[in-house]
């Protein structure tokens, strides 16, 4: 294959105290192949500390990196100081409010990122030789996706793949999942970043307006979207901090309404508790309120205006190898179909 081919191999020396990183650079052509071999010997401590440093630089935080790595923040701080001392270069600027790479630190990040990704991919590929897949995957999921899509299938997934660890962070805030150290994100289809590979995990979801019977008895039932302007409504704050305008449609007629109300929540689950208590009307994904509608604790209003929107999609970077655990989770969700597909 024409062009530059880089392969990174890692092994431990017999005395288990050294790691060798071998970089093979080969230019292939019609007549000959020329290559250069570069071998660098580094200590195992340096490799471990480089992994720590990369996590800190990615998160811009000792505490968040510590959570990802499963160690204490103080252990990370100690390791980084040791690495900086051995290298003789400051890698991070640290203040009480921020952690940012220095120029040297940023250069180091860019230099070791690809080799580390290659090593990680090589180790990940060994899963196909194991009887039971192993690994750890980190998912950043919208709160509704975590509750409605992931949590219900976890018992069966754990039984089938007992050696795969899953770290689920439920948050509606939009982030760059790759930069934040996640293997994938799960969001509603219309909010998936365009530069990511996206795969559908659920059927389209209907959005509904619900209230408790007590509230409707006290304040009446809205018969038209304009009636919402005269009701107590609980507003939805989106992951980008915008207040959501309720979207309603019927026979080609659409409404986008900024509803009145003194309460705003950034998670539908929080609003659900308030609505069950009679606080007012709120706009929900139908699967979230379906059990409460079934048992009579909630009622739907303006159902003929309920729009059908894109369901949940999982997305991940196209530039990195898909971890085996993530692939198996996607296949499992598409097989189990907790929200239909």
Automatic annotation (TrEMBL):
Protein origin, superkingdom: Bacteria
GO biological process: DNA-templated transcription
GO terms, molecular function: DNA-binding transcription factor activity; sequence-specific DNA binding
Pfam families: HTH_1 (PF00126), LysR_substrate (PF03466)
Domain HTH lysR-type: 46-102
Keywords carried by this UniProt record: DNA-binding, Transcription, Transcription regulation
PANTHER family xref list: HTH-TYPE TRANSCRIPTIONAL REGULATOR (PTHR30537), HTH-TYPE TRANSCRIPTIONAL REGULATOR PGRR (PTHR30537:SF1)
Stated family: Belongs to the LysR transcriptional regulatory family.
Protein name, UniProt field: HTH-type transcriptional regulator PgrR
């Amino acid at each position: 294959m024409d062009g530059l081919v880089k392969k990174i191999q890692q092994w431990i020396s017999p005395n288990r105290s050294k790691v060798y990183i071998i970089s093979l650079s080969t230019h292939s052509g019609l007549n000959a192949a020329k290559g250069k071999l570069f071998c660098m010997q580094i200590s195992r401590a340096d490799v471990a500390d480089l992994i720590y440093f990369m996590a800190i630089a990615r998160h811009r935080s000792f505490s968040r990196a510590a959570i990802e790595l499963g160690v204490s923040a103080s252990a990370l701080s100690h390791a980084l100081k040791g690495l900086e001392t051995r290298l003789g270069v400051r890698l991070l600027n640290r203040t009480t409010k921020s952690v940012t790479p220095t120029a040297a630190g940023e250069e180091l990040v860019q230099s070791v990122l690809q080799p580390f990704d290659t090593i990680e991919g090589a180790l990940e590929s060994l899963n196909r030789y194991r009887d039971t897949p192993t690994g750890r995957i980190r998912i950043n999921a919208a709160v509704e996706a975590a509750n409605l899509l992931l949590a219900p299938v976890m018992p069966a997934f754990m039984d089938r793949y007992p050696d795969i660890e899953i770290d689920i962070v439920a948050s509606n805030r939009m982030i760059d999942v790759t930069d934040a150290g996640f293997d994938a994100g799960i969001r509603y289809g219309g909010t998936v970043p365009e530069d990511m590979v996206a795969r559908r995990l659920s059927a389209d979801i209907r959005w509904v307006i619900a209230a408790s019977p007590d509230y409707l008895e006290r304040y009446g039932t809205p018969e038209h979207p304009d009636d919402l302007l005269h009701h107590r409504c609980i507003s939805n704050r989106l992951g980008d901090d915008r207040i959501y305008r309720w979207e309603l449609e019927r026979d080609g007629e659409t409404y986008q309404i900024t509803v009145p109300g003194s309460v705003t929540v950034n998670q539908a689950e929080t609003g659900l508790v308030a609505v069950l208590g009679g606080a007012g009307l709120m706009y929900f994904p139908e699967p979230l309120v379906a059990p409460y509608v079934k048992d009579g604790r909630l009622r739907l209003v303006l159902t003929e205006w309920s729009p059908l929107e894109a369901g949940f999609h999982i997305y991940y970077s196209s530039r990195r190898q898909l971890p085996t655990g993530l692939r198996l989770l996607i296949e499992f969700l598409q097989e189990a179909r907790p929200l239909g597909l």
